[in-house]
Amino acid sequence: MKIIVYLYFLCLAVYSIGQANLDNLCGVWNDTNQSDTARLKAIHNFTYESYLFCKPDNTYYNAGLAYDFANSTGHKSNLPVSLIIRCK
């Protein structure tokens, strides 16, 4: 019984850490004071880690946002990354 309780709290802690990381990535994307490259990296990681396999509609939308942002800011090297995430 102690092992089950220990595993429960361990899983809860791991989930909490993962959620904090996703909130941080979302915060970087929304912070316009961050550099364009950091914002693009954040939205790519956020989309890949949170939506790719469970919410394909959100993946498609966020990858489109990243593509449009990269295109409008002139970061041509990030365009293929956005398309790859969008197509998965």
Descriptive report:
The protein is mainly α and 88 residues long. It has four helices and no strands. It has helices at residues 2-30, 36-50, 56-73, 79-87. Helix 1 (2-30) packs antiparallel against helix 2.
How is the secondary structure organized here?
Layout: H1 2-30, H2 36-50, H3 56-73, H4 79-87
Write a concise synopsis of the structure shown.
With 88 residues, this protein is mainly α. The protein is 81% helix and 0% strand.
What would the keywords be for this entry?
globular, mainly alpha, 4 helices, 81% helix, 88 residues
Which spans have pLDDT < 50 for at least 5 consecutive residues?
A: 8-18
Can you give the mean pLDDT? 78
Span of the ends, CA to CA:
42 Å
Reported for the largest beta sheet, the result is: none
Radius of gyration computed on alpha carbons = 16 Å
The helix-strand sequence is: HHHH
Structural class: mainly alpha
Helix content: over 70%
Tally the beta strands.
0
Shape: globular
- Give the percentage of residues in beta strands: under 5%
Query: Helical element count?
Result: 4
The overall number of domains is 1
